[in-house]
């Protein structure tokens, strides 16, 4: 339940202010130029930054106090496939001191207060989920996980030291951006608030998405437009997504299973992110997926998922 004593961060406007046609065109042109720059920047290598003194506001950034794991499936629990239910179960079993909360589209929109004129625009379900995660974490804080992620190490064992300024995301250094399938934030964190404001500014004047990677570009633009957010991110703990994401597509590759098992034993992988583009075969024994799910047949997987209670 949402604590009524905790004042939520301001909603993204409730109703979007109408812009005149010239300002709409100017803002869209600004975003288009930024997208071109981000596309070029993805080709560049990362450069080290010279350390600067940390501002007082950064040192006083509030920690994350809300112990909620947010999981979203737009059509609700009854429509969740077995793998998504097992993902939900992994976060709940390994984090007993946390509330693991599943939201569908109706409950998520009611909780976030995203204006209907924004949610009704021509966006993909994943893009609406992007706005929902930004607004949830800005308003309430907590941890957002995609329903294709699996918890391996309890959050209490690694997350707090990784977010000294109240925000954490796995980095993608070669693209100078972040992975969005796992995000952690304190309530009203400056980085998350800036990211949200840029995203809603775009959707206030656009009727459809421009590029597939625009959500990542919003993050880069937020750091550029809001200096405090940029400084906080620069000096945050940066953990690469490679180790956590290495089996994103190779989850059925048996040759990778021995090294993967050793990494699990050493506690090197706190969570797993999969993109289930290949059909799960009747038997997947000896694969990394079998190690994560702790079963090796599709029948056993479905039986375990059927036993998961919300």
TrEMBL record:
Pfam families the UniProt entry points to: Caps_synth (PF05704)
Record-level GO BP terms: mannosyl-inositol phosphorylceramide biosynthetic process
Gene Ontology cellular component annotations, sorted alphabetically: membrane
One GO MF term attached to the UniProt entry: mannosyltransferase activity
Name of the protein: Capsular polysaccharide synthesis protein
Organism: Novosphingobium colocasiae
Superkingdom of the source species: Bacteria
InterPro entries for this protein: AfumC-like_glycosyl_Trfase (IPR008441), Glycosyltransferase_domain (IPR051706), Nucleotide-diphossugar_trans (IPR029044)
Record-linked SUPFAM superfamilies: Nucleotide-diphospho-sugar transferases
Gene3D superfamilies: 3.90.550.20
């Amino acid at each position: 339940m949402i604590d009524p004593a905790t004042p939520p961060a301001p909603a993204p406007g409730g109703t979007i202010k109408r812009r005149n046609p010239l300002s709409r065109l100017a803002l869209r042109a600004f975003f288009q130029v930024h997208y071109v720059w981000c596309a070029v920047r993805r080709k560049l290598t990362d450069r080290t930054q010279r350390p600067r003194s940390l501002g007082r506001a950064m040192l006083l950034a509030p920690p994350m106090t809300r112990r909620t794991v947010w999981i979203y499936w737009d059509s609700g629990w009854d429509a969740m496939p077995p793998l998504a239910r097992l993902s939900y179960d992994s976060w709940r079993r390994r984090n007993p001191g946390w509330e693991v909360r599943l939201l569908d589209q109706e409950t998520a929109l009611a909780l976030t207060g995203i204006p209907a004129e924004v949610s009704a625009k021509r966006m993909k379900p994943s893009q609406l989920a992007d706005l929902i995660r930004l607004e949830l974490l800005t308003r309430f804080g907590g941890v957002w996980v995609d329903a294709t992620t699996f918890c391996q190490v309890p959050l209490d064992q690694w997350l707090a030291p990784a977010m000294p300024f109240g925000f954490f995301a796995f980095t993608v250094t070669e693209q100078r951006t972040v992975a969005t399938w796992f995000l952690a934030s304190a309530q009203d964190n400056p980085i998350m608030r800036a990211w949200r404001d840029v995203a809603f500014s775009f959707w206030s004047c656009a009727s459809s998405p421009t590029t597939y990677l625009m959500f990542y570009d919003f993050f880069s633009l937020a750091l550029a437009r809001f200096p405090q957010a940029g400084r906080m991110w620069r000096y945050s703990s940066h953990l690469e997504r490679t180790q956590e994401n290495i089996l994103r597509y190779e989850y059925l590759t048996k040759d990778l299973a021995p090294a993967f098992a050793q990494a699990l034993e050493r506690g090197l992988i706190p969570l797993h992110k999969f993109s289930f583009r290949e059909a799960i075969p009747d038997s997947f024994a000896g694969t990394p997926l079998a190690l994560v799910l702790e079963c090796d047949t599709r029948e056993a997987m479905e039986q375990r998922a059927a036993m998961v209670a919300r």
